[in-house]
Write the structure tokens for this entry.
Amino acid sequence: MSLRHALLGLLWTKPSSGYELVGRFEGSLGNAWHASHSQIYPELARLREEGMAEVVGEGPRNSRTWAATDAGRAELRRWLTETEPNRSIRNETGVRWFVLFLLDPDDRRAVLERELAYVDEEAARLDETRTRIDADGGSAFRPVVDLGIRMDAVMQEWLREQIDATREP
Amino acid sequence: MSLRHALLGLLWTKPSSGYELVGRFEGSLGNAWHASHSQIYPELARLREEGMAEVVGEGPRNSRTWAATDAGRAELRRWLTETEPNRSIRNETGVRWFVLFLLDPDDRRAVLERELAYVDEEAARLDETRTRIDADGGSAFRPVVDLGIRMDAVMQEWLREQIDATREP
DNA sequence: GCCATCATGTAATTAGTTACATGATTAG
DNA sequence: CTAATCATGTAACTAATTACATGATGGC
């Protein structure tokens, strides 16, 4: 279960409300994991029961600010250093890019072009994130942003090559 | 639900038994999707009910060979060209690489080195796959193998840089 | 003859998605 | 004053994992 560890990581860097965590998931962990509010709220409650997260403040609109406890940080460290990673991936885009090569060139090109448009947007978003981090004087996660940028560049190049290939004999 | 489309793609390229599909999933779609036999067998039965897959032969040990039907191929094509991709990803390794930067340099390096060892193995496997495909006179999926090889190269470089960074002041 | 692997299935549990439900605050 | 967004929660359903269960075949 990566959800709790993702939440502990986010709360470690910055205490947040459940609602804010939904947004932070999209913004930073978006291309590794996804979680909706209906999963986040119950999980925060479980983390509190187990002493790994706590409510450290209350704000307007009945919002509560959560933070990781020492036990939560210890659990995240233990998970990273002592447990065997689950390598199984669930990436629909990857499945699409795989089976795509069964289509005839015209259909294939249309799909590839949509994919390229998406990756272009994604790359632009990441580039903005990088600019923002650098302007703010850095972040621990700067290296992860950099990895994302490099991966996107590889995908863009590959997609352009595959689009070109649909036009060959 | 990508499972059925992944299955249709695999069956399109080569009719197989459920048991063989488990192996083919690992071998080719492994870094995009994962499925175990307990999910594959019921899904094949559903695909048959819906006319998208059929049993085209029986072999020893009560094995049955499945193939995609015309309706199955049409459905795969429709899914690729007409439906909006679900971009949400579930990749525990990605979550780990993200939260890793909360650890102190020594712990972080230990985890990064394990990750590099894994990616090295992964890259070696993919390289074998490429060699085998080229020796066999090619495959439609050769481009996807190439993408994987490039991604692995980016990850190897990034991991080496991050390992070096744990040794800096 | 027996062990490894091939081969298929179902049941129980857990994780994740979608839908339902409601209230608070703020900007216009 | 009202619509958008902030904010939290639960219920129903679907997908996925883990565990249970069994039999066939081939190599040794």
In short: Chain A is about 65% helix and 10% strand.
